Automatic annotation (TrEMBL), chain B:
It comes from Paenibacillus harenae. Its main location: membrane. Belongs to the binding-protein-dependent transport system permease family. Coiled coil: none annotated. The chain crosses the membrane at residues 12-35, 69-95, 102-122, 142-161, 182-207, 242-261. InterPro entries: MetI-like (IPR000515), MetI-like_sf (IPR035906). It comes from the Bacteria. This is Raffinose/stachyose/melibiose transport system permease protein. It is found in: Cell membrane. Residues 70-261 form the ABC transmembrane type-1 domain. It is a multi-pass membrane protein.
Amino acid sequence: MAMPLANKKKKKKWQTYAVLFILPSFLLYTLFVIVPTVSSMYLSLTSWDGVSSDIRFIGLSNFVEIWNSERVHNALKNTLLMAVVLVLLENIVAMALAIFVDQVRWFRNLFRSVFYFPVLLSGIVMGFVWTIILNYNFGVLNQLLDVVGLGELKADWLGNPDFALLSIILSTVWKSAGYYMIIYLAGLQSIPQDLSEAASIDGANRWQQFRHITFPLLAGAMTVCIVLSMISALKIFDQIAVMTDGGPGFETETLTYIIYKVGFGELRQGFGTALAQVLFVLIMIVTVIQVKFLRKREVQL
Amino acid sequence: MQKRRKLNDILLFAGTLLLAIVFFFPILFNIMSAFKSNAEIMKDAIAFPKGLYLDSFKYLLMETEYPRAILNSLILTAISILFMILLIPMAGYAIERHNKRWTRAVFIFFLAGMMIPFQAYMIPLFKELKMLGLYGNLAGPVMIYISGSVGFGSLLYTSFLKGIPREIEESAEIDGCSKYGIFWRIVFPLLGPCTATLVVLNGLGIWNDFLMPMLVLPSGQTKTMIVEIFYYVGEFSSRWDMIFAGTTMSIIPILIVFLSLQKYFVKGIASGAIKG
């Protein structure tokens, strides 16, 4: 009889400790993540301006407006375009960088650090640097084009709607490729050397080795990189804030940027939260689909 | 064959070097421009600085609120990280070791947070902070940062704890050590690599964060460094030298921390990404 009682007492003690250990995180997380998330679902059905205490319920009107608004459509188009282009470019550049760093004979660690360093900097800081580099009158890029005699290619990279989005995309690739490079590098280093050796003895050239050995075996790293780069592309904000402020006009607005603009610039927080729901759903769908599809093509060794 | 091999190596090196120059140029350009006067930047953006022009640093540090902003960023980062280390590993430990139905439910509840983008709940959060009287107060962002990293943090710690045998904890318990003591004296030191990852990744994220601090600490005494830089871009739109001095001051600490803790950055990403 004594044993179970002692056991029970011990269990009870465990229980209270577990509760005490988890409670602070649980409370904070509930209060500052879950409560606002749940209340955003309600706020999206109101016409609240963010200031007054008058929160009027207007049903699905905000979502009807989203459905009809040209501006939102443009932002949505930009978001999706950016997501697709960024995922492609970031992964291609990251994989190339990883292969270069993996193969190069000298200064390997230095190169890795150089490619990785932009990841560590704030989007605001790097956005500003790129704004100056791309400046029409005094910028480095136009100056360089002049020097090499390609003066006619000069453009107002951030003021011209044709180039503004592209400029943001390319500077983002520069900033984040290093992050995915590290993941690909870890993937490359886990591929056993003897596979490529065997292939090269069989007469496979470098491209064939990459195509049939390296690439399929990187699928695991690729799943992770595509999911992460897609999610961060959907959330891109800092660069836009500092490089174009969504302009010229509303040309370079994305979903996250329009949420901020509408909610805090135009004081339509009900509408802003409705847009936020769209973003939330978009991110959930993308994550679930990607994980499902991409897991399938992973090759297990 | 030997010769071709060598040629290949050199070509590869040249290619990598070229890429490295392209990647490093914007950072070099930033640091270089900070030591140039505005006229120098406008005249020839690419040229090396003629001398060490330090006036923009002096001006920023003496005449503006920039030192205050640097201090705010430091305080915000340090305090948030400190509380994260105090709270999240404990939760992860209880979830992993006290494997019951309710702790598993809590774990899933925490993980769900990793899917919710900050923008999805920022507007109500803003309202909530005002209601709680935390608007414009550094305590608000501290709590938001801790809450925001509960999901990733508990994932990180639970998966790491799976690899640590329980025997040590059990023998300590027989010796009469309390659960609290077991955790802080025995388990926590073993979690070192995990904690380093958490500190490095979150510390960097907080130091660089822009949107949230801009929303909840917008003016006066509590602006962070990045928010201040953002306002300078609008305010001193034609005084690039000043902004470059500001951005350089935000880059230097990152450079120092990165060079001294490099392996944790790399390891953190590799482990975090592959697990998550």
